[in-house]
Amino acid sequence: MRTTYAARVVAAGAVAALALAAAAPAQAARIPTADPGVSKTEIVIGTTTPLTGPASPGYMYVAPAAKAYFDYVNSNGGINGRKINYVYLDDQYNPALTKKQTNQLILSNKIFAMFGALGTPSHSAVVADLNRRGIPDVFVNTGSSNFDNAKKYPMTFPFFPSYVVEAKVMGYYMANDATLNAKKKCLFYQDGEFGDNAQVGFAAAGTTFATTTSYYSGQQVAPFTSQIAKLKAAGCELVVFFGVTSATAQMLGTAAKSAFAPTWMITSVGSDPSVVGAALGAAGNTLLKGVYTPSFLVPIQDTTNAYVSQMKVIADKNSLPWNFYTYYGLNTAYVLAQAIKAAGPDLTRASLINALQTKASTFRSAAIAPMIISAKSHQGLNGYYMGQYNATGQVERLTSYIMTATSATSGTAKKTTFKPGAPTSKLLP
Amino acid sequence: MKTKMSRRLVAVLATSGLLLAAAPALAPAQAADACALGATCEGSLTGSLGASTYKIVMPTTFNGTVLLFSHGYRVATPVPAALATPLGFAANPAYVKTSVPAFAAAFGSDVAYVGGGGADVADNALAIPGLLAQGYALAGTGYAKQGWATAEGVEAGENLLKHINGGAIKGVKKTMVWGESLGGLIAQTIAERNPGKIAGSLPTCAPLAGPEQAFSGAMTVMYTWKTLIAPTLRVANYQSYTQALSDLGTVLTTLGGVAAGTVTTSAVGYPVAQANLLAGLMAGLPTKSTVYDGQTVNPAFATLGTLAAIGGGYSPASAGANTAAAMLQNVGGAAALGILGRYELEQRARTIASIPATETANYNDNVNVSYTNLLSSEQRGEFGDTLNASTVMPNLLNAMLAKLDASKGDATARFGANAAAVKAVRALPAAKGVYSVPTLLITTTYDPIVAAGNTGEFYAKLAKSGAKSKLLKIAQYYTVPSPDGYTKFAAGGKSADAAASAAANTSGVGHCSFFGLEAGAQITNAVKTLNAMVNAKTTSALKKAKAIEYATAGVNNDGLYEPDALKRPNAK
Hints:
The structure holds 2 protein chains of 2 kinds.
Chain A: H1 10-14, E1 42-49, H2 62-75, E2 83-90, H3 95-108, E3 113-115, H4 120-124, H5 127-132, E4 137-140, E5 156-158, H6 163-175, H7 178-181, E6 185-190, H8 193-205, E7 211-215, H9 225-233, E8 238-242, H10 245-257, E9 263-266, H11 273-280, H12 283-288, E10 292-295, H13 306-317, H14 324-342, H15 349-359, E11 371-372, E12 380-381, E13 383-389, E14 395-397, E15 402-404, E16 414-416
Parallel strand pairs in A: 1-2, 1-3, 3-4, 4-5, 6-7, 6-8, 8-9
Antiparallel strand pairs in A: 10-13, 11-12, 13-14, 13-15, 15-16
Helix pairs in contact in A: 2-14, 6-8, 10-11, 13-14
Chain B: H1 4-14, E1 40-47, E2 50-57, E3 65-70, E4 79-80, H2 81-84, E5 95-99, H3 101-107, E6 111-115, H4 127-133, E7 137-142, H5 150-168, E8 174-180, H6 182-193, E9 200-204, H7 211-228, H8 241-260, H9 272-283, H10 300-303, H11 306-311, H12 319-353, H13 371-374, H14 377-383, H15 396-405, H16 419-426, E10 439-444, H17 453-465, E11 474-479, H18 498-504, H19 521-535, H20 539-550
Parallel strand pairs in B: 3-7, 3-8, 8-9, 9-10, 10-11
Antiparallel strand pairs in B: 1-2, 2-7, 4-6, 5-6
């Protein structure tokens, strides 16, 4: 890192005298008497998400998909007479920009609630402020267990299971599959909360790894040469990977060039075939074939499923690519719409929180696991099935059962079954 | 880390002979001679702690209100020109040029600068014309001693108050106190102690949480540096001034090496920029500096692509890398006060409590601090984006925290405090946060020397203490930078253009930087606001008064904003 000698510029900063004409509004701030962002005809919902930048592949589809669903609801009369005004802003997965865009949503757009804010580092930068201001922070798009803390963050609600839960599920599955369990297991993870969470889960599950290696966020722009060399040299036969989708593509690509072909098991948030395919070309599906990945949604290719088929219609109408992220964005928007409906005609932030905490088990969705939300726990979905990629880049469900767990630092996953209820009429709330 | 400067410092250790520059001699004040309209009157007043200076600048038309100013921290010991120039002391008229022969060998020159005892009516001259134009009489003090001089500052202010009320200014209807940085703490202390004589108080960017808290951040930074960057640092319990200068030299030399690209990894194997970032985050230092806005990426990354830009040596590569650069600048700027200020306050505690040289005079105990806990989960999340410049070790953040906490509870590896020193520091005059007069607090949001949390927490104390007042006249303001950032790059520039960036950063960043927009309107309007608050008789008048400063360019008008809480390393 090259910087100008820090101390020498201190004085320079003090004499800055260029007048930016960025005058603040000539009005004192007022403490609102009613919840912002909700009127008789409108509800303003906001999101920060990477639409551009190195982490955007895949994730860039989530918010436009939610927008497509809200547009669909609005064209069917809205919710209790209110149309949803959905504002999503690009933060490039950059915490400083997340702060700026979140301030924009709060102070200028006057949002009623945040919805689906994406990214652990980026959302970490604003979560405390959102909670302090009493703004519902619904269905954050990160599996960091830090956000699953109803006491510390009473306004924040995760949607998908935490990475701790996912690691416990992976550990449980490996331990109970004789073939996988016999393999020499290794771990490759992204530095920071993502990887830390995974290691907590594996420790609780009793999974041990012969070797571990990691990458830092952003490093995936270049081949993972040293990491793959380390895994290969250690003789790893099963590599578990916790990283973002663009890193999965880099890992599979680097391994293929190094003639390293272990069995892979990849986190659910890091393995969309369309994104991997975009990076690796025609080889994508070949490289993905046989990769294990847990999933918490009905398989995307199952168009006989009433959720999948109806969501695909909305995606197609809006010219959205039919991939996991589009599907996921539509599904979470669908659940939020039900929560808003359940909050009743006199919508307030408190009534939304109450609806989430008391009625979540009644919300329908394409999730294959129960949604656990109460005043004491904001866990969200609590389990996965294990899937495996086939030759056409589709995840096939391997287990008819699901594996559930909590984000606690101890305790293992448990095997259970869950049958999602049928969708609501026309997929409307 | 061996460098030219550190070798020179070794020489200083052997030949220290430091001079304290005396304040310029001034005639004792004559009572009752009123200062004429449009005139500047200066003199000195004698108190139990020594002679203090004063200055009165009269407007051509007096509005009946005196603004009594207390100036900020001035380093009490001579700082070599080689350090004083980049730190801004050499160009600061409050500092006196002096000679320390021993510095010639160590720093290439005997020239040094030391905080003087001259009086100021404002720490930034830009505020003066605007305040005089509003008709205020401006009065201010210089202190009998420098350093953490709250005792001397309060005595000087109270003596000047008596002098003014004794006839030095005619036609006084009311006096409001104000002060910058340490002077803000002094002003607020004067206000608490003299409620009947003071009509209002305006502390700006002030360390209102007191000295122990003010230096706890420096302990966090220095201990982290000692553990991860420079094991030779003494950190605390300085037995001589040269030991403190040696620490300052080590920090600035290392930062210089990072800036020049000659230092990336420390002698103990950690990447300096990231270790420094961790140190700053745990101490609660801001993630923006006057040059680095913590968000802007070098445009080469968009035009050339990531790999080509990295290969071409362009920086910063990410928001995180920009933040790390900001923290290098912020630690560099804070180092002098953190190290030389600690030295001075330790000496002060030694004198007050008669602590022998054989005992430590440290007042910031870190023996049982959990550094892992000091990094909030929010900061931990943010840190994840800042690691892009390092491939030194896997899982770097956790590795650094584990190294820091490996010594937890070990009194020999860490720095225990002396209870007598703690007691002496806690007994120094300091405002308690008891609501006594209308009070307006203002600070920059991103202040690397005095965290904005000082203002937020003091405001909360005043609000609690004054909760039963019929009309609670308190206000807090935070200046903010442009949300679009201000780090600038020359066309094709490999790194940020420091001068252009600093010029574009007009508000909200830096210590007491209120003068970028509209030539100091953030301060002159704050005075106008406080005056209107003092005069307000109704809730609506009070609200209207507060709106003046909210409407000022660069002032955050989000009434629900709160700064980050102060880091309290020993909190249970």
